[in-house]
């Protein structure tokens, strides 16, 4: 586990937001350490957004950024623009999103109006596949940290773990689950990115079965610097336009059948004897 306090630009100026919004790095030294970024690889990604203790105001224009009461929607707008810059579109499908997810984390981390206040990674490896233990460990990592319905996250992971064990394939499976939250905590507006990387190795000799697993739970917490948004409201409105966390929630939800059953829907295969 590693906790960290990063430093933002002391006084971000409109130029810094222009650089960021156009896909370039803001001025000043890079913020270090950045959150853990997953390595790009072939695999699946499922995304589920949550909100807690905040509500949409429907604000538009400059007031979206100039009035702190509207900042939950402003944060949703910023996260959505970060995804556009990274070509990260979970709502469009499950495949080929892992590389873009890493770019998305980097864009969120470099937004001049956010401050990375917490960053941690926990991991576990096993020589035998025990999905029940894995689910318990992941649930323990999430509970008490996000106030949303953690069981929906767990259902998604459980569906995936059970379905890939039934897949007919010779390759190992790597999957990422990401949960993003916008919450109010002690008067501060924060955006949290969770992601769980799961790697299951397939036994290639004899009967096809998954023989080992490893998983890592990553959490990064960003504080919204409300005063910075207010001071740069006109420029942010010009660069980012209107938005809300309702738009963000829609764009960041992976396509599903019923609840989070997407892995059952898309990946279940007959068990091989």
Describe the structure.
The protein is 34% helix and 25% strand. The chain is an alpha+beta fold. It has one domain. A 5-stranded mixed sheet has the order 1-3-4-5-2, with helices on both faces. β3 and β4 form a beta hairpin. The longest helix is centred in the first third of the chain and has 16 residues. The radius of gyration is 19 Å and the shape is elongated. It starts with 13 loop residues before the first helix and ends in a 6-residue tail after the last helix.
Summarize the structure.
It contains ten helices and five strands. It has 273 residues and is of the alpha+beta class.
Which helices and strands appear, and what pairs or packs with what?
Blueprint: H1 14-21, E1 44-52, H2 63-66, H3 71-86, H4 98-109, E2 114-126, H5 131-142, H6 150-164, E3 173-185, E4 188-203, E5 209-224, H7 226-231, H8 233-240, H9 245-251, H10 262-267
Parallel strand pairs: 1-3
Antiparallel strand pairs: 2-5, 3-4, 4-5
Helix pairs in contact: 1-8, 3-4, 3-9, 5-6
